[in-house]
Amino acid sequence: IYTLSLHDALPILLLDVDDFMLGARPEDARRVKAHLTSKCQFGTWVVREGCFIGCHIRQLGDRVLIDQEKDILGNIRAVDLARGRRAHKSSRATSAETKAFTTLVYQLNWIAKETMPEVSGAASLLSSRLHLPTVEDVIEANRAANLVRSSGSQRITIWKLSPMRCTSRLSATAPVLAPPPRRRRRGLAIARH
Questions:
Q1: Entry pTM
Q2: What is the per-residue pLDDT across 48-92, written as a single tens digit (0 to 9) for each?
Q3: CB 109 within 8 A of CB 145
Q4: Which residues contact 58 (CB under 8 A, 6 or more apart)?
């Protein structure tokens, strides 16, 4: 039985086919592991670093690092175009090119969702071309795939943060048309650049 306060966190167990990830305080993790290993047999039990649904996750003392380099390099491949096809940009893609294009676009969407949000624009635009892709669409998908492959080692960093020490600030980098407010509002600091 758990009683929650502002400083407590419940253990969380994420499951996906044959992978799982446990997030808990050390004392809770030991108790959950003892319970799970008494009920099931596990091939490996990795602590602080491992792969879960294609993401390599590494926990350090003050942060968590997440990347998909292994999954990207193993799965993301440019669509093969026959010699001379690049010159016919407005031509419709062949059935084999369309199938490979569709697979690549779905993979780009997955990568964009998981660890590379900067790819989401290209993935979204390419998704709109799934029904009738042209050679030019395939070329654009290949550019996006090459970008993803070249930057696959980039990581997302999640820093340890105490909610009790957080403050909120709003920063606008775009020009603001309205004049700034004359009186200061409570609880919100606005910085204009």
A1: 0.66
A2: 888 888 888 898 888 889 888 988 999 999 999 999 999 999 999
A3: no
A4: 48, 49, 64, 65, 66
